[in-house]
């Protein structure tokens, strides 16, 4: 079985796929880490700012740092999210690589910096959620998904992202809470189809390694006990099989026509 077939088969069956080897060059990862630190200082090297987030310079250093559209502020982060190897991997997982006119475009990016926990009361967990719950600007059935890239060595003690295998096929609605801190309580509130199992799979990745997950796959993460920050970018992508509701450019689809924010990284538009 070819790599392309294997990647898509796993993605379709599990709702995610892990590529636990560096997909982009190490020097680019290092530059992106520098770009992350620059943004966390409130600086940029492009003349443009990110579009907000739940953290700003001066906030408590033990808080989860989530910054929206960091590629607007950092040349290195833009170079990373637009790297063709990411587009190729995403096109293989979704099948866009086998469709005439197949395309992959970045439409939103989130910088995520999970500091080392200072105790069980640290507010740095990511609650169980489906990305689709937050993406109401897209038509139902749109092929939208996330490529998550590790910028640090993500081991079991780092609070890695945890995917629930096969949960993208569960028909039940899920009450998503990205900022929820009681993951066990959340889990008890998630109904599963008859015969389904709650199987957590950790995204253990080296710097430059990636995961790709469906917009309906349930995922979250716990505390970072490693003593060092866990660094990553969540790169939200779409294929040609997607369309904003009413073809509008607002909210999460505001920047679709801006190639310096939302580059096409596979195929042609």
Description:
With 269 residues, this protein is of the alpha+beta class. It has one domain (3-266): Jelly Rolls (Sandwich), CATH 2.60.120.620. The protein has 5 helices and 11 strands; from the N terminus they run αβαβααββββαβββββ. Strands 1, 2, 3, 5, 8, 10 and 11 form a 7-stranded antiparallel beta sheet that branches. The chain has a 4-stranded antiparallel beta sheet with strand order 4-9-6-7. Helix 2 packs across helix 3. It is globular and about 45 Å long. The model has no long low-confidence stretch (mean pLDDT 93).
CATH fold-level name: Jelly Rolls
Residue fraction in strands: 15-25%
**Main pleated sheet:** 7 strands, antiparallel
Number of domains: 1
- SSE arrangement, N to C: HEHEHHEEEEHEEEEE
Number of β-strand runs? 11
CATH class: Mainly Beta
Estimated helix fraction = 10-25%
Spell out the CATH superfamily: q2cbj1_9rhob like domain
| Mean of residue pLDDT values | 93
Structural class: alpha+beta
Report the CATH architecture: Sandwich
Give the overall silhouette.
globular
If you compute it from the alpha carbons, what radius of gyration comes out, rounded to the nearest whole angstrom? 18 Å
Distance between the termini: 30 Å
- Tally of contiguous helical segments: 5
